[in-house]
Each structure stands twice: as C-alpha cells, then as structure tokens.
Amino acid sequence: MSHIFITGSSDGLGLMAAQLLVEQGHSVVLHARNVQRAEATRRRLPGAEAIVTGDLASLQQMRSVAENVNALGTFDAIIHNAAVGYREPRRVETEDGFAHVFAVNGLAPYVLTALIHPPRRLIYISSELHKQGDPSLSDLNWTERPWQGQQAYSDSKLHNVLLAFAMARRLPGVLCNAMTPGWVQTKMGGADANDDLDQAHRTQAWLAGSDDPASQVSGKYLYHLKAEDPLAAALDGSLQDRFVAACEQLTGIRIAA
User: Fold this and answer.
1) What is the DSSP string of 58-115?
2) What's the CA gap between 20 and 26, in Å, rounded?
3) Would you say the C-alpha torsion 203, 208, 214, 220 has a positive or negative sign?
4) What is the chain's Cα-based Rg?
5) Which of 138, 146, 136 is nearest to 231 (CA)?
6) Are 4 and 21 in contact (CB under 8 A)?
7) pLDDT tens for residues 16-53?
C-alpha cells in the first residue's frame, strides 16, 4: 500500500485517479480548494484518508497546504494535478500579483515541490498543448503581453514538464515524470474533447502506485502508460534550471535540491 497525495482532487481527473487508487488499496489524501468542496468530496469518496484544503492561487494557502500535508507524514507519491483551464478571457490577478493561470498551474506545483517532504514519486500533469508553450520563458506573469488564455495555459503546461525534468535531474532517488491525460470531456476539457475519458486518469495512478517495472521511470513524458517525445526544448537542462530560478525569484521559496 502506498501513501499518495493528489492536488486538485475534489472532482475531475484528480478524483477519478483517487477513486482508482483507493480501490487498489492505497491510502489517498485529497485536496480541495475550500471547505465546501472538501465536504462534497468526502461524500463522493469516503474511503479517502483525509482532505487538505487550500486555494492554490494564493502563496499563503500554498504554504498552508504544504504544512498540512507534511503533518500527515511521509508520502510515497504526489500527483500535481490541480489546474485551471484556458478559458479565462482576461488576465485575472491573484492576491500576490500573479496571473491566475500561472499561479495555479505553474507556481503552485513548484511551491509544493519545494515545501512538501520529497516522496518517492512525483507526477506532474501536463498536456499535449505544452508543445505550443513559449520556451523563451519571457513575461511568465503576463504583465507585458496581451492576454491570451490558451497561450497562458499552454505555457503553464510546458512549465510542468520543465519542473518534472528538473526534479528528475536534481532528485536522482525520486521518480519524477510528466504526463498528459489527453483531451477529454471534463469541465476543463469541454464537450468537444474526443480522447478516451476512461484512460485519462490511469497513467497518473499507475505512476503513483504501481509495482510494474515499466512504471519505474524518471525524467519521462508519458501518455497512456507509454513514454512520448515532449517539446524538444523541454529537454534542455539549462531551460529547466531557468524556470526553477524564475519561480524561486518570484515566490522567495527555494527548492533545496
């Protein structure tokens, strides 16, 4: 049995992965944005060990989530699933002055990675749209560029891959991977999505809890249990380090590795 924490697991693919992992006998800690969503999630998955609450658009609440997760002990795996989509019609600024999409999708995985005790496995949920992300890393916070919601989302999904690969290099004893669930019909994906929803949650669950030797990989980008080629620029260690350094500068929080 593995001890697993999943961000953004009050609904959607995060909850689907949690349900599968609980069915497999793992001890799963969920995450919800607020108490109301946590209560609804508890009714949907009563077999979860616990539910940690906190809005990952807020640096203070990111810290609180990390503290509460650490208080629950050491984890075997963490799935960084929480994200917002590409439909924000304008730049929404968080209480810390960050673009909302960048804060939740890009900075929160970084901050939680820095502050939660390292598990044995780290999984970062990306998207095929990461290949449309901007590898220049210029204007990460969208203070100079005209706002484009889909581009902001694509950039953030590239950031997830960069962080996963950076951690794979920095934490050789931890299995660190990025993966895409495919374009599926969730609230984020929308009604036009045409990928297989039944497969969308299985790769992250497999990476988090499986003893299959094929799951014991690191520094990979996966889709439906198989490694695929990411955007070529994401393989550049110096670019990975630049993203980590930018997150450190923006948040004041440093990854020890």
Assistant:
1) SHHHHHHHHHHHHHT---SEEEE-----S--SS--B-TTS-BHHIIIIIIHHHHHHHH
2) 9
3) positive
4) 17
5) 136
6) yes
7) 999 999 999 999 999 999 999 999 999 999 999 999 99
* 47/85 Cα distance (integer angstroms): 28
Residue 58 in contact with residue 92, Cβ under 8 Å?
Answer: no
Tokens 């249990």, residue located: 225
Give backbone dihedrals phi and psi of 221, rounded to 5 degrees, phi first. Answer: -115, 120
Amino acid found at 243? F
- Gap between the Cα atoms of 203 and 144, Å rounded: 37
Which of 124, 153, 220, 221 is catalytic? The answer is 153
153 in catalytic set? yes
User: H-type helices in 123-236, by residue range?
Assistant: 149-170, 197-200, 202-209
Torsion of CA 197, 200, 202, 206, to 10 degrees: 180
What is the pLDDT of the chain when averaged over all its residues?
Answer: 95
- Cβ neighbours of 105 (radius 10 Å): 28
- Per-residue pLDDT reduced to its tens digit, 208-221: 999 999 999 999 99
Note the residue count of the chain. Answer: 257
Beta strands in the chain (DSSP E): 3-6, 27-32, 50-53, 77-80, 121-125, 175-180, 220-223, 226-228
What's the token pair of residue 52? 């940690």
Active-site residue identified among 86, 131, 157, 220: 157
The sign of the CA dihedral 176, 48, 195, 159 is: negative
β-pairing, 27-32 vs 50-53, is: parallel
The gap from C-alpha 140 to its chain's centroid, in whole angstroms, comes to 17
pTM, two decimal places = 0.96
